[in-house]
Write a structure and sequence with these properties.
The protein has eleven helices and eleven strands. The chain is α+β, with helices and mostly antiparallel strands. Strand 5, helix 10 and strand 6 (about 260-265) form a beta-alpha-beta unit.
Amino acid sequence: MKTIFAAFAAIVLAACVAAPATPPWDASPAAMREAFPDGEFIAQRGTGATRAAAEAAATAAIARFLNSEVVSRIAILEQGWEQNGETGARTEIEAEIFVQAQMQIFGVRHVRDPFFDGRLGEWVTVAYINRAEAWQVYGPRFRQQAQAFAALFEAAQNESDPFRKALRYAAAQDFSRSPDFRSAESLGRLLFPARMDEEFAGVRAKLAALPQRAGEARMNAPVYIDVPLDFESLVHGAFSRRFAELGFPVTGDRASAAAVCRVTVEEGRQERALGVFYFPKVQATITSPAGALFAFSAEGGQQAAATPDVARRRAYRALADAVLGGFSLETDF
């Protein structure tokens, strides 16, 4: 009896100290890649005190991987754009929100053979996404973005009015730089690059051609600025500077202009016992042979001084600052 007990105890002790059997996917990094080929799956390992915790950690690892890759791809797209730390941080937040939303449709799965590693005291598992299955639900979603962009690009390409063409190309650029489009395009290329190349080659070609097309359209749309009421050319100078910053040449020849920017100033002058007060306003309307294209308005607040000339100069400087800080050409094209 003692011999049987001793043998039983030895078996139990050996079972306790023996290394746990691991599934093939956890034998080595090479085994993990063999079990989940990169061309077919996106897979990440996770550990936790419970099986559920390990699965949650593995799913979170996939989300972090996708988010990091999307942000990196967006950064490549943004090369040449004016960026700063605030913009970069906002891009990361936007990408993270987008990836988290898409994770709900990908059908993240977990292996059927997780195991408890007695040496580590943790559960080990793998979360994975089947690229082909994910594309079935994600492809149509990006297709909507791609079709919207293509429509904007083609509308600009087919526009005959030079200034309107430039505005349409600007609208296509704005759309291509929107958080939804950038994140969607980057995630699609990460999820299934071969299918993205196959289905959206035309969109890629348009994206590549867009900067040059948009720049040429702006250069071919000179603007004549008409400011009947001004002071020391402050308002005219402000509009000229903004058009130049936006890539539109300003011409002094009205006949050769693609569009006319008509600027109306309301000085709002009031004489009071304490001095001369101005409450200036400015309105601008851009027209071309296609009709009215854009309108802008701004106010300069209350400006005052003891003498009329000083008060008026302050009013027009305030309007100029309002133009420099607020005038853009964002439209609904």
